[in-house]
What does this fold into?
Amino acid sequence: MKFLILNGPNINFLGIREPGIYGKSTYNDLIRTITDYAVTRGVDVTFYQSNCEGALVDAIQKAYYDKVDGIVFNPAAYTHTSVAILDAVKAVSIPTVEVHLSDVNSRDEFRKVSYIRQASIAMFAGHGFASYTMAIDCLIDHINGSK
Ligand code: DQA
It folds into this structure.
């Protein structure tokens, strides 16, 4: 199985941005944690991060041509604003799990809104890096279950 780990704006600033909310670990630490976990689960992972909405849409469309089996997606602030990203996920019909490091439902009101949720098979939030590994497990179960 081939999964794309997709991250939106400011996730590259992990370790620098608001450490009280997002922790002190960096984006490279996140990549390392997920890569190690993927080895234990026997899945291939590729990573992409962008601060630009259109680049994230392009990455989702590329996943279609690359025959990616699943997407673990933290759209970051675009979660709460982007119809374009929702439409892209709907367009490719690749099982997608929405993830967040923080618990978006216990923060600002506007963070409770998620456009991508209606196109996601599940959502994990508030578990830090474990939100991503939980999403990998969820995708594996989903794909195995639908065979
Ligand atoms: C986030 C939560 C979003 O509300 C925020 O805009 C982010 C990160 C998270 O991982 O907790 O940039 O997606």
Q: What stands out?
A: The pocket of DQA is lined by residues 10, 74, 76-77, 79, 100-102, 104, 111 (CB under 6 Å). Residues 2-145 form a domain with the Rossmann fold fold (CATH 3.40.50.9100). The chain is about 40% helix and 20% strand.
